[in-house]
Amino acid sequence: MLDTAAIEVPQGAFKGFIEDLDEADVRACLRQYAIANNYSFLLTELSKPLVEAKAKVFLPLPPVWRNHFRSLGLTVAPRSSWRFRLTLFDNFIRGIKLARQLLEFSRVHDCLYPGRGKFDAFFHFNESHFGSGIFDPKRKDFYAWYLSYFQVTPGRPCVIELPDTRPINKDHGHIKFVGSFFGGLKENDKRRRFLWCIIKLGFKALFGVLNNRWWLPAMFPEAVKLEYFKLVPDDNIARRYVFSAGSCLMRPLWSYYAERLGAEVICVFYSANFVTFTPVKDVVAQRTAGLEAMNWPVMIVTDEDSKKALVSYKHPEKNISVSPEFIDFTDNGVCVPLVSKKSILVFDVPPYRTYFKATRGFHNAYYTFSQWSSFFDDILVLARKYGYMVMLKSKRSNHRFHEKAFDFRMEAIGNLPEVCVLDAGISPSRAIAAADVIIAMPFTSPAIASKLQGKPTMYYDPGGQLDHCKDLAHGLAMTHSFEEMDTWFSKLGLHSEENLEAK
Questions:
Q1: Residue 54 DSSP code
Q2: Which residues contact 71 (CB under 8 A, 6 or more apart)?
Q3: Which of 166, 258, 305, 385 has its CA 20 to 30 A from that of 447?
Q4: By the 8 A CB rule, do 413 and 457 touch?
């Protein structure tokens, strides 16, 4: 669909708007923007199901996509055209606000960088991923992985850009948390040059809103950051710029310029899921358009299956590296409770409210409360049968968009004597090290960490809704009924007489 509904942008469309970059890179960024921001999962989801239902689409769509969906039999409302223009205008306003924010940072930013190539910069991370600025060898967070993978000492300077609009500057010695990693423009001349550049870009972007040159306002915020990056002091250029999987779908324009200056640009995938799956039997796992549009020069993944998945998207194999260790992301340092019996560690996916999923383009109908209940209840019966303790490690805790029934159930589960609910902030690797057997919902990535540690691991799919998706299990066992799970569990040979007597 993405090829059929290609983005129609004439050659030389960015001349005089975005300079010093190859047009192919700018077009790649525009394509990623269309998928990752305004249109999200639109291109993969508006296909067969909606055509069969003759659904009406009220979404911001450029003309070429409206025509494409009409050719599929969809009714695209005329209001979609106006919504698209409003979306572009909103993007124009976002670019103006970003320019104002960067100018504010340029005046108050006092972060002193150690020099060009002498520090690393990180994006879409927060303080919990870096131990709040304090290195603790007991933690298994992203900072610990970074030190191990790149073989750097804990004292290497790092700058972490926090997702905030305020001019934050928290200095923890070698680790600095800032609102904008670009640093300040102390020279008045540079600030004036940036302001003048934004005025020219702003008029061109506004002209694009009014004259259907939608690619100009679409790229306006990216052009703003690029122009600012060109003016930052030489000492503010990092050795490597590291992005997380949370921002993988869109590579910022300024990173192409940073790469031209000799910096490494890296995207780290802590998740091992690279396709869209559904419990509908006759719908095979779908490739995700956003992953195909990526063009990171260096990608780091958790295992060989993840590497093969990215290669299948036609990404060069030489650009993809496999981490020898699982990529833990967050670890709050809370101790894993000691239990007196052997234990089953459970990794789940909490069910969200329907409207929360719909507003974010979530397509997967698998992770419902009823499915979660069947998953956990069967494991609880299994644990009681063999005298095991259940350690439940939820993906997130106390999320305001959780299903209310799930929150009520979690409160009740916490009072069961054979269940230990772990703090959600504990890293998967530390929790796995304390358990004997691991059972996870399909296809959560922490199961890969268990596989790397050599622990007995299984995906449990009660009801067999994902029986047609076994290829996504990364070589792990996958069962679809209590009887299958019980058979797999009994064959492990881990059940001592002490455990059976302790039931």
A1: T
A2: none
A3: 385
A4: no
